[in-house]
Amino acid sequence: MSDEVFRKLEENVQAEFVRMVEALLFASAEPLSEQDLALRLPDNANIPQILDGLTREYSNRGIQIRNVAGKWAMRTAQDLSFLLTHEAVEQRKLSRAAQETLAIIAYHQPVTRAEIEEIRGVAVHKGTLDVLLETGWIRMRGRRRTPGRPVTYGVTESFLDHFGLNSLEDLPGLDELRGAGLLDSALPPGFSIPELMTSDELTEDEDPLDENDLLISPVDQS
């Protein structure tokens, strides 16, 4: 077999791998990791190279290949998100209190209900945490190693996916939030955004949840 024939055969094989990855990303309801893709493709498929090529190929299209929380997914181009704004609002219309609570959890996690109330300055209304749990944007992480062992909360991969973030490090900073009108200009003296978490693992002052914790409504937990 000549080198030219071998090269063309190799190109055809690699092109087929690209088609397979493209099909998997299109069909999957959830973002896929490189390991997920590798399990479905032959061993000689270069997954990182394929994803890099697809990302560049789709970069100027209405659908793009995006890295979401370390995984890969097909998503609408951000500049076309206005086309879907109405549907998104209808499906996930959050109250101002729920939006504030979600923001506090994203920036301060792991955070307890009492800590959320302290930051907001008002009590968390019954059902607010339930609503956020139902959206799939927050989760119960663990229990704080303090008296009463209150439940701690954090955001989920679905939160990152919905807001187009690869990690919590991509959350906007204080100046950006002010510029977007998402923070009051008359903030308390010394107000700042804490150092964001870069890991989903429990912290030193958190214990893991047990099976009974998952059966209790968050509004019934300390």
Can you describe what's shown?
The chain has 222 residues and is of the alpha+beta class. 41% of the residues lie in helices and 13% in strands.
CATH A-level architecture of the largest domain? Orthogonal Bundle
Q: Radius of gyration, Cα only, in angstroms?
A: 22 Å
Please state the structural category: alpha+beta
Shape: elongated
Largest β-sheet summary: 4 strands, antiparallel
CATH superfamily of the largest domain: Winged helix-like DNA-binding domain superfamily/Winged helix DNA-binding domain
Strand order of the largest sheet: 3-5-4-6
How do the SSEs run, as a string of H and E? Answer: HHHEEHHEHHEEHHE
Overall pLDDT: 79
Question: What is the CATH fold-level name of the largest domain?
Answer: Arc Repressor Mutant, subunit A
Number of strands: 6
Count of discrete alpha- or pi-helical segments spanning 4 or more residues = 9
Q: Considering DSSP H and I runs of 4 or more, what fraction of the residues is helical?
A: 40-55%
